[in-house]
Amino acid sequence: MIHSLFLINSSGDIFLEKHWKSVVSRSVCDYFFEAQERATEAENVPPVIPTPHHYLLSVYRHKIFFVAVIQTEVPPLFVIEFLHRVVDTFQDYFGVCSEPVIKDNVVVVYEVLEEMLDNGFPLATESNILKELIKPPTILRTVVNTITGSTNVGDQLPTGQLSVVPWRRTGVKYTNNEAYFDVIEEIDAIIDKSGSTITAEIQGVIDACVKLTGMPDLTLSFMNPRLLDDVSFHPCVRFKRWESERILSFIPPDGNFRLLSYHVSAQNLVAIPVYVKHSISFRDSSSLGRFEITVGPKQTMGKAIEGVTVTSQMPKGVLNMSLTPSQGTHTFDPVTKMLSWDVGKINPQKLPSLKGTMSLQAGASKPDENPTINLQFKIQQLAISGLKVNRLDMYGEKYKPFKGIKYMTKAGKFQVRT
Amino acid sequence: MTDSKYFTTTKKGEIFELKAELNSDKKEKKKEAVKKVIASMTVGKDVSALFPDVVNCMQTDNLELKKLVYLYLMNYAKSQPDMAIMAVNTFVKDCEDPNPLIRALAVRTMGCIRVDKITEYLCEPLRKCLKDEDPYVRKTAAVCVAKLHDINAQLVEDQGFLDTLKDLISDSNPMVVANAVAALSEIAESHPSSNLLDLNPQSINKLLTALNECTEWGQIFILDCLANYTPKDDREAQSICERVTPRLSHANSAVVLSAVKVLMKFMEMLSKDLDYYGTLLKKLAPPLVTLLSAEPELQYVALRNINLIVQKRPEILKHEMKVFFVKYNDPIYVKLEKLDIMIRLASQANIAQVLAELKEYATEVDVDFVRKAVRAIGRCAIKVEQSAERCVSTLLDLIQTKVNYVVQEAIVVIKDIFRKYPNKYESVIATLCENLDSLDEPEARAAMIWIVGEYAERIDNADELLESFLEGFHDESTQVQLQLLTAIVKLFLKKPTETQELVQQVLSLATQDSDNPDLRDRGYIYWRLLSTDPVAAKEVVLAEKPLISEETDLIEPTLLDELICYIGTLASVYHKPPSAFVEGGRGVVHKSLPPRTASNESAESPEAAPTGAPPVEQPDVIPPQGDLLGDLLNLDLGPPVSGPPLAASSAQMGAVDLLGGGLDSLIGGTNFTSPPAAAVPASLGAPIGSGLSDLFDLTSGVGNLSGSYVAPKAVWLPAMKAKGLEISGTFTRQVGSISMDLQLTNKALQVMTDFAIQFNRNSFGLAPAAPLQVHAPLSPNQSVEISLPLNTVGSVMKMEPLNNLQVAVKNNIDVFYFSTLYPLHILFVEDGKMDRQMFLATWKDIPNENEAQFQIRDCPLSAEAVSSKLQGSNVFTIAKRNVEGQDMLYQSLKLTNGIWVLAELRIQPGNPSLTLSLKCRAPEVSQHVYQAYETILKN
């Protein structure tokens, strides 16, 4: 199982180590550094690195490498999932997950890590339970602790630990009972030169924020559950009921959680809400190239497209760009060759465009590769797949909760080839 | 106020100051001091000097302080074992605490202190905690057993903790079950032979129940454990699959992949006609696709596994090509994997899309990726014949881009395309030749030279082109030199008049001026061939080359089957069995897919194998009707022994060894008339060793020339069941080669022709080494005797019984199936004599459970006679002892697949019964070895 964990910052310093079995010398990380050197970018460091006696599995999040050391045959996904859980827990505890924050809270971090694994076996990874065992630091609690001398370690066995609903603690009380669900969909798409869709798929999630007293039992039904044929559930969802009736029935965890994630694949038609018109031309002889892109709406069901940003990695031969946007602001970094254009909201009456020239290296032949355009956008109050919640009911408790459903569509990895 | 204050130091010296604070009377100050110590520890500073002071803080009601001290203890106890004893009392006391959290914490911490003296004190508290009323404590204690086992395995066994742990599998609480399974799995990993996780239908049922209720991590442990179980029939397999499928919708990708493993493995047992089989296939695709939308690290592991899954069952993902399309900002390791899977999924239906994508990738920035994309186009051409033309034109487009590395890569793959579709796309050669000067990589140069040599007669200036390469001959890499040598010899044979000078030049460069033995040897061979017999030279050098096929990059089926059992593990990421890389070479149990069995299958006797239904479906081995000639050709190519795979794999490696390939096919064509010494190394690796040791045995005078015992021929296929064809036969082993002696009798009224034979996969990979040669048509009432040479490099599948061999024979009338049992002694190899020391060590090493004892009755032979009789069949006597009037013979033998069997044979004078004890790491062979002994000794 998981032997040790090293946290390494982007400059290659090991700033935290934790061992769950015998101590593994930190020199084992040298193999990791070698791999890091070979990979040009941090994102390209291979996630599994073999060394003569150990295996290093790593994830790169928030500019920190989380490197787990294992010695025996362990499912790598198990380790990687666990590392993700560590990152999530840190974020949950401290608001952000960054080197200074971890250093500031090193003792809490250490206590939490100790609670998460025992002898390399996961022990408590649900943030609900962890927070009962070790209270997250808050300014108030620090002050209170210093005055009263009390501690931030819980001395009671977490209530959820052994019940049939390990994700929920007992005795939850709220004065305002509320349950909010956000249906968020991300479109991943590759659009080719001519504007036709090569692949498009939707990654959707339903995130919930549930603050309800007692042990509520919720059911959530959809207008069109047929869309959901590829789903992953939070453990609280009763799978049998979903299989037979296509209704989500569950006792929710307390607070924020991801109820379900789903995938609408390329087979079903995916509506593409925006289009990009582009004309980028390099000429062999000239040291000037022409550049023009226009963004416009398409299949948006009448909703506005907001927060649009366009980024593109220009070829190495491009020295500089002189462009004029019809709206928003743009920047071009001549070192990284990254063009980014913050468009804002698209007005269908006056489509935003960005035009101008590129200066190319004199005398060099025209670049081999074509730049790919990356698009970011948001559409409020729309789930692009058409998924709609029918109703939300609560059983098991007497009070009437506030309920709310919000929809949003975002661009995930949305790429336009030129 | 944050913890970073703990890192500040003062001038006086940190340790000194901490010491003072730790011994302070104020609780608060103490706690702060311990926090400072822990903070220093986490960043790797050595604070072990404070050990006694910190341990003094342990006796406290403050849980946080206690936990902090425990953290410290775990880290430093090992370096201060004597001091650590001081802590024992507190631990023992805490294990009795009314608060379950404290009991659990104490037992958990004690297990982490890896000091022998402490472990002794741990036993009693641990025993209590394993039976604690609180499940939280029990589950913690279960893990503690695994920790203790890691420190002192013997102690755990002696104290009976393993049994207690096994009992916990039936615990009422699912988390306890999951932890017990996890602990047992970890212990079992270091004791592969011990049968710790004794899985039976009852315990499986308990695990499946716990699976629904325990945490995600527990589910992973349980699923991995389930994957080791072999259901007794297809019904059980199906019911397990049904209960595992809901796990495919879990949010944790590790749970999903472990569930996929269980399903992929048990699916093997389900009949393809079952409705459920189809349902299951459909259910597997969406979760695999979903894994690809996760973080890149998860994607990578998922892709490596999907790579295996699409090779085993391409039907699962055949419609999902698009999800493998590469996004330009995917990390490179994800891109390369996606590309690989795209090629595996490429088919006629989607090839247009795939090619368009690949062409797009070939214009990306990342050089490695671009290269692989170009290669992928070539692989598509080879895989999907209909697309070859389109691929070639795509490649030509890419060559027009003049991007150096793209051009080179394209030329390398075009060479492969030429080898697959000879005389089809030669029109592009002119375009290729234009780019000759830009090639600077050895592989591309070698490929280009090969093309020029191969098509020398169509390239007007071939001699000039090759001559231009010759100028810098000594600066070229070996690969290019070899290729150049061959190409010029080819050119000479095609256009002898103009190129005499050139060939002399290259031969002298290769033989006289080169230090490279490969190059020299090849040079001399050509030289001699050309000078003695130019016709023969032509036959060798310009022989028709075997075609390459796309299968060269597939994982070998047996390895693939093994890897399927390891889905989700490191083995699946490396595509190597764990035995190839697991630390310390601890015995790793080989896993294999369960055989397909029907629940109502009766134990059919081999002779009575139904002729109507084929034993196992083999769709492409023997088509029932059709073009007979084509069939026969297929059959000849079937067994993986002849040239094609070998030559193809060398082509894959880049160095196109034409000489090797040429010789191979030449020898194959002329029926082994060439010296066998050359033929053997070229075609089969394995028998050389045994052949050589034969020679040694002969010279030392021990060998028994007669070869092993041969049973009389028995009727395998009665004429009634095979439309008049009767087959009887037996197996022989002589001087290292196995053969099947067959007698074919035609009892029908019509002439039989076009005989061919094929074996089903079997336990030892027996396969025909040559096609069945029946030269003349077999007239009615005529019979013919044939000796069919066999080898053991065929596909392996465990059969029941182990020595069962299913054979298909076809003639112009029909295809017939029969099965027969072969005596195991034909598999005893000639180098089966073990060294004495080795024997002793191995005998001790094999666990006693693997020992099997048999009686051989009515065999009144002396020890010497027994020994020499057995020696004839490659059972070697290593030592002989006389104990209390009994002769004890210690013998060893080795099977063709490398399994050693050790034997102890007890002979009592005057008693005709012999007692045989066999020890082997694969105990299932013992029974058959015993039968072989009996057969040999009684004949």
Task: Walk me through the structure.
The complex is a heterodimer of chains A (418) and B (939). The model of chain A has no long low-confidence stretch (mean pLDDT 85). Chain A is α+β, with helices and mostly antiparallel strands and 418 residues long. Chain A has 3 domains: 147 residues, Beta-Lactamase, CATH 3.30.450.60; 128 residues, Immunoglobulin-like, CATH 2.60.40.1170; 107 residues, Sandwich (Immunoglobulin-like). About 12% of the residues of chain B have low confidence. Chain B contains 39 helices and 13 strands. In chain B, helix 18 runs parallel beside helix 20 and helix 20 packs antiparallel against helix 21. In chain B, the strands form 3 sheets. Chain B has a 5-stranded antiparallel sheet with strand order 1-2-3-6-5, with no helix packed on it. Chain B is globular, with a radius of gyration of 34 Å. Chain B is α+β, with helices and mostly antiparallel strands and 939 residues long. The interface between A and B is large, with 98 and 106 residues. Chain A: Its main location: Golgi. Chain A: Keywords: Cytoplasmic vesicle, Golgi apparatus, Membrane, Protein transport, Transport. Chain A: It is a peripheral membrane protein. Chain A: InterPro entries: Adaptor_comp_med_subunit, AP2_Mu_C_sf, AP_mu_sigma_su, Clathrin_mu, Clathrin_mu_CS, Longin-like_dom_sf, MHD. Chain A: It holds the Pfam family Adap_comp_sub.
How far do the termini of chain A sit from each other? 47 Å
Which percent range describes the beta-strand content of chain B?
5-15%
User: What oligomeric state do the depicted chains represent?
Assistant: heterodimer
**SSE run of chain A:** EEHEEEHHHEEHHEEEEHEEEEEEEEEEEE
Structural class of chain A: alpha+beta
Radius of gyration computed on alpha carbons of chain A? 25 Å
Strand order of the largest sheet of chain B: 1-2-3-6-5
Helix segment tally of chain B: 39
The strand count of chain B comes to: 13
Low-confidence stretches of chain B: 598-706
Secondary-structure content class of chain B = alpha+beta
The domain count of chain A comes to 3
State the share of residues found in helices of chain B, binned by percent.
40-55%
Approximate shape of chain A: globular
